[in-house]
Structures are given as C-alpha cells and as structure tokens.
C-alpha cells in the first residue's frame, strides 16, 4: 500500500519579515543580519518537520529596498552555519548563474551538502535586479533570454564538475598506502560558450549527488529550464486555476524531457496572517498596512513590475506596462490581479507590501490549513513556500497552530523519515554522470 | 606597566596532516572532507588558547597532490560552520584574488566576521597553481607581477565595499519606522583596471571593520603588498638569521607605509614531531618517512620549486633551477637549504615530504618549546603557524604538552582576553573609510 500524497513545506526566511512593515510589529526581532534569530527560525522549522528552509538573495542593494533585503548575511555562508545547528531539515539558498564562477559555486554548494549530510538545495537564478551588473564590473545585465542560456550552460558545467569523482573514491587504506582510488577521478573538460571549466573539482561526490535544484522562472525560457532540471519550482499565483495550469504545464514539460512528473514539486509562495479569529487576523493585516512605508512599498512594486513607477498617479488604474526582462512571473500575476480586481496603483502597492505579490491567506489556523489543503488537493500545488509576515512569532504561530492541523488531516508528515532533502521530497539521488 | 610580549599561535589545519604520510599513522583520522575531525581540531586549538585556526586552499586538484589537498571541503563555507562551534578563536582561510569576484568575496568574508562576532581572517593569495586557470575558463594563469597588481587592486576594491556602510547604520526604531540610517549608506563606485564594483555592499560594516589581512608572498612584489596591507605574514624559513632578516625587512616596509611595526605579525610555519624523548620523536619521523609515497613527495616538491622534476636524477645534487613565478618563497628557501647542506634531489624530496619546506622541530615538548622561544626572542618571529604532521593526536600533543610549557614561561596567554581576532593579535579596528 502506498502512503497518501503529502504536501511539502518550506520556510522562506527573509528575516525582517515578508511584509515590508513586519519588522515594526511588537514581537518582531531585528532583521537579516541577526544570526541568532535565523538559527531559531531554522530550528523552529525543523521542529515543525518542514522539508526545508530557504534563503533568497540578491547581489545589490539600495536604502529603500525591502527591509529584509537591504542589509543581509550572505546565504551560502549562512547555510553552512545552519548545517551545524540543525539535523534533518533541508537547507536551500539562491545563487546566481550570472555573477558567480561555476568552479567556485560547485565547491560552496558541494561543501554545504557534505557538511549537512545531504541537505543542500540550490535556487538557480539568473539575477533579478539589473543594478547587480555594475557591482561586477559590467556595463549591463545580460538580456533575459541570454541569461537563461547562460544558466542552462552553467548548470551543465557544475553538474560535470560535481561528477569529477565517482562515488567511492575514498580508500584510506593505511596499510597499502592507498589514499584515494585515483581511477575514480575524472577531468570533465567542460567547454561552453559562456563558461568553461576543465576540472576535476577538488571534492568527492556529494551525498545527494547534486543539490536539489530549485527554479522560479515563469517565462517561456524559465519554464523550459524548470521542466528540464528543476526539482522544486517556486511560483507566484493568486488564482488556483492559474496555479493548476502552471503545475500541469511544468509537469508536462518535465515528462517531455523524460522525467517523472513526481520529481518536480511546485511550491507557490503563501503568506499567512494568522489570528485567533478571522477578525483578529484582519486587524493584524490592517496594523501591518498602517505601518508600511509607502516609498519602500512602491519600490518593491517597481522591482516586481520591472519599471520605474515615479510619476504615475497612485489613484489611477494600474498602468498597462509591457513586460520587462525582470521577474516576469511576478509582473504577469500582478497585472492579471490588477485587471481582474480593477485595482489602482495605490491598491496594488499596498497588496505587494504585504506579500510581495504572493498569495495571502488571512484567518484562523483552520482557515489557513483549509486554504493550503484546497490548492494541494486540486493539484494546484505540491507544497508551499511559507512566507511569514514577520519573525519569529508569526512563523511560530504557523508551526504551532497550522502544522498540527495539517498533520491531523494526514496532509503533512508527523516525523522525518529521511535525513536528506532528496529524501524528504521523494527525489532520487542522481546517478554518477547523469 | 605594559605586559610582556607574547607569541601568537595559529593552527594550520590540513586535515590529512602536513606530512604527506601523516594520514597513515595509526592514530590519524581521515582527511580534509572530515567535518567532525576539523571541528574537534578547531575546538582543541581553542582549548589551547590559540589565536587562530587557518585553512589553506587551492582551486585545482590532481590525484597525486598532497593528500590534504586532493579532495577537500571549501574553506569559506567551512569557516562559517566553525563559527557556530567555537567561541573565541580566530577563523582564517585562503581565498584567491585571481579567481573570485570582489563583491562576492566581500560578502563571504563579511558574513563570516558577522556570524563569528569578529573572528575572521583572510589569507590573500594570487593563486599558486597554474592549473587553476583552466578551471575558470582562462587559457593562462596571469604572470607573477600582474597577479600582484591584481591583488592590490582587489584588496582596495573589497575594502571600499566593506566601507559601504558607516558604523551604526542599524536603527530599528519601530515607533518612528526608521529601519536603517540611509545617510550612512554610501556608493563606493570603485573603478580599477582589473576590477570594478559600484556598490554599495548589501551588508553593514563588519565587527572587525575588515577581516585580519594575511599574506604570504616572499617575492619583492609580495613583500611590498605585505608591507602595505598584511597584518599576519606567513613565511617559510629554515634559518633563524634569514627569518630575522625577513621580519626586519617586512617591519621596515610597514613603517615606510606609515604603519606600526607591531601591526604586522610574522608567523613562520613550524612542523613539530613530538616524542617523550628525542629518540622517540626521531623514530616517529623515520616511520613517517618510510610511509611517504615518493611520487606524491616529488610532485609536492615540483609544485614548490615551480618546475616539473621528471627526468632528473634523484641521487644527483638538487638542480639549480631558475625561480618561476610560483611559490617563490618556498623555492628560494629550499634552494638555499639544498646548497647549504649539499642535498641530493632525493634528500630534498624527503625533507619536503615532512613539512612542505617549513621548519621542522623534532624532539621532546621542551625542545619544541625551546625552538619556538629561541626564534621568538631573537626577533625572527612574532608567532608560529603550527603545522602538525597528522591530526588529531599530533596536534593534541602540541596543545597538551608544548602549550603549557610556553604558558609557564610567560611566552603565551593563559586565557583569552579578547573576543575578536584583532583583539588576540593586538591589532586596531580600522577606522571607517580607512
């Protein structure tokens, strides 16, 4: 008898909170450079049997950015630190294929997988903020389609490097003086248009073979990459039907590349504002809205639409701006929402302040659980990337109040049954040379 | 009353041991991917009140490399992990200015300093192995002098990025809605010949201002860089007089750049083989020598001399090879030793197998302490980079048997009196914009 399908849960740690005013809540603690807070959140997620914690990233800043992003610890080093204070939970972070070297990134992620005993995940991004280019001595952020071509090649390159050594290379035979099995070390000799790396990588094959590959592109090029290689897909959807169509499309693409539809997990973002009653939850959201900085909120919306919004009338309908090469999934979802609900720019700005465009569920723990169950059972999601409005107590409430309901309903694990992120997700360990 | 001058001690962790046959000793544990071993070594060093642990690095491998280098965890992620399981000890690693991006490395090191509460050190290398170039899609390793010009610019660039934010940028004033003091964020706009980065860096100023800067170049260009910026200098010397001359030269250079001679600490490498009696220590060294793989030993020597040695007669005198652009300090020290002691290539190979060219002290704990004291008091060293022949027990012996003698003689601290690496070394925290 096969066990019933269960949802997967990730905790998206943006430590000043996902709501732009989250940090101002009375119980919120200081932001994204607060290691002690991040450690407690990761341990709480592990207590809640989450599949993974996830750290986003960007390689630029400005003072009016989202408070969780303006100043922050670097995610790869932070994951390495978290590997020492957690035991089971997956540890994933964003790293850019546009602004890192394959040989270096292969080592960082490989080390995290080794040190954590097989818990590393990698969110492959091509760089969502055009400002980043100038931090790397380049005049221009490459165009959208070129960034995806680079990403595809980058992934092929790091996979080749990760397969430099076959499994079982360590010998450590003191008597015979045999340290490694040299015949198991190979020189990948990867040569591409954008990236070349001869290798071998100076690291044995990692416990998971490759880290769990995460992707979030919603454009045609992004979906194509996801269908080929992604094992978790982050998505931004307000509408269950749209999310279901997205899931179906991605699983179809995966199948067309010879993959199992079960090996690509679609996990839309969800921000839950939880109250003892629905009215209390709504009051919390209102309080958050009153504390939001309108300038920062407009900047966050501008990043997501990919256009500078200064000069637009806040009380006019959302302007019909053409899609840019940046954050296309967000832009499309937000434009669709604005059209459907006839929102003004001010209304859309306030919505984005709350959840950065992701689905927002406001209510009791039961209502939140219902909202997750509905999408999960409809095939509109394999799980959810939980985006608490602030840390730590808004996330504590989710773990303490929503997770037990999901467990009681048989929708979520009671205990870990695996010790690797691939294990939690039911993903196979890739064969060597795969 | 000023306290007496005390030596500084670092533990150079090459986890399969510094002697190429160290891993074969009965008590040796498996090598450089063994996180648990590295954690215990770092904790032992902290128990011994060491100033720092140090992780070397290279961005290439081959099966016949030194066993500690062939397969290894990546040092920056490893330091981040160590920051969680240690409290006081400094955490330093090598990172290359030739094969990383300033914006990325500034973040990695900055995060380690934040997470460790001010314990990060950075060994600035320009890349000692020419093979590395092809791992980064480049045809050729840049020439020696160009690598140093790049390094100088790289350091200026990361310092500018580290000073993106003035101290005290965090406000976190919930009532006023004031998250940071935006006036304290600046755009460095660094533009160089090799590296440019506009900034700002997305991180507040780190606890130490900058990580402790470590350097090991022995060439004219390397000494010049060290005199300008290094706070710890690693060196390879067999002869006390040569080491004293090196110390004097570097301190003179530092003074010529307007720095205090006390703010540049010269720490030559020392490999100690410790026995209950001198005869026992010598037997251990012999046993190690018998276990050494001659092919690997010759390869290690070839790397240090910067020349392929295949075809040379092992029983003829060491050939007088011209200095290459690689590891010049090692090459010069080894050539001088070979001349002075009229060594054959085989004898030099066996010497390098033991300590990779560094000073080797073989004897009782008292003799080892004497050997350190002599150089320290002669002004030939400010401290020592301890290179145990294997881990963990050869290092445990140093901590348990040599350190107490140094402490009893007043030559080394009994307790930590600071919580940052700068504090242990008596180095000032750099002013913002310095």
Automatic annotation (TrEMBL), chains A, B:
Supply the source organism's classification. Bacteria, Pseudomonadati, Pseudomonadota, Alphaproteobacteria, Acetobacterales
Say which family it is in.
Belongs to the NtaA/SnaA/DszA monooxygenase family.
Answer whether the UniProt record assigns the keyword Acetylation to this protein: no
Ligand binding (FMN): 57, 94, 144, 148, 219
Organism, as annotated: Rhodovarius crocodyli
Keywords, alphabetical: Flavoprotein, FMN, Monooxygenase, Oxidoreductase
Task: Output the Gene Ontology terms for molecular function.
Answer: monooxygenase activity; oxidoreductase activity, acting on paired donors, with incorporation or reduction of molecular oxygen
Name used for this protein in its record? LLM class flavin-dependent oxidoreductase
PANTHER family attached to this UniProt entry? ALKANESULFONATE MONOOXYGENASE-RELATED, C2H2 FINGER DOMAIN TRANSCRIPTION FACTOR (EUROFUNG)-RELATED
Keyword Flavoprotein belongs to the record = yes
Record-linked Pfam families: Bac_luciferase (PF00296)
Q: Where is the Luciferase-like domain?
A: 26-380
